[in-house]
Amino acid sequence: LSTNATTSTSGNFEYSASDWTLTPSSAVFSVGSDSNYNITYANATTGLTVNQLALTLDTVNTDDKIYDATNTATLNSITFGNTVGIDVVSFNTSGNTTTFDDVNVGVDKAVSISGGSLAGTDSGNYSLPSLSGVTSDGDITTRAITITADDQVQTYGFGSLGTTGFTITSGALQGSDAISGVTLG
């Protein structure tokens, strides 16, 4: 059998993903002889179909950020774990939208990525896996704020200091976050 399929551009002898012609020729007989037959060879009806290999994720690299009450993330790169041989395949981060799966502080946060595309000379031989809810190396770290007790003057026997005598003196709350009270002691 022969085919018009091309091979990987990186030097592998793997057929590139696509539909190709499949042509039989030169029948070899285990019993009898081809001279006893007038053989006509015809191409396969469908031919050879080489499907793209679904990539697996190796690393998803995102920037760390300080808590800001949003799930916006910045994607730097994705590497894949199952490319064939020395195939050249990468992820073009241009035009992607990356979001952490929630806004809260955490380590190695899950992200979802939309947009972007495969790049590289062998990218046509591969398909992207799902990029939703994948583990990244990106962290959301805590935001520093300082809460200072307000000065108070009380009369003996006053009972309690309450919960509202305070001011945020450095840093700032983010988004719709609000402090309704602070235990004063």
Characterization of this structure:
The chain has 185 residues and is an all-beta fold. The protein has strands spanning 2-3, 18-20, 22-23, 48-50, 53-54, 57-62, 65-66, 72-73, 75-80, 90-92, 97-100, 110-114, 117-119, 126-127, 134-135, 140-141, 146-149, 166-170. Strands 8-11-12-15 form a 4-stranded antiparallel β-sheet, with no helix packed on it. A two-stranded antiparallel sheet has the order 1-3. The termini are far apart.
Note the topology.
Blueprint (H helix, E strand, L loop, with lengths): L1 E2 L14 E3 L1 E2 L24 E3 L2 E2 L2 E6 L2 E2 L5 E2 L1 E6 L9 E3 L4 E4 L9 E5 L2 E3 L6 E2 L6 E2 L4 E2 L4 E4 L16 E5 L15
Parallel strand pairs: 5-14, 7-16
Antiparallel strand pairs: 1-3, 2-4, 6-9, 8-11, 10-13, 11-12, 12-15, 17-18
**Spatial strand sequence of the major β-sheet:** 8-11-12-15
Order of helical and strand elements? EEEEEEEEEEEEEEEEEE
Mean pLDDT: 91
**Radius of gyration of CA atoms, rounded to a whole number:** 32 Å
Largest β-sheet summary: 4 strands, antiparallel
Question: Which structural class do you get from the secondary structure elements?
Answer: mainly beta
* Total number of helices: 0
Contiguous runs where pLDDT drops below 50 for at least 5 residues: none
Tell me roughly what share of residues is in helical segments: under 10%
Instruction: Report the count of strand segments.
Output: 18
First-to-last CA distance: 87 Å
User: Quick one: overall form?
Assistant: rod-shaped
Q: What fraction strand?
A: 25-35%
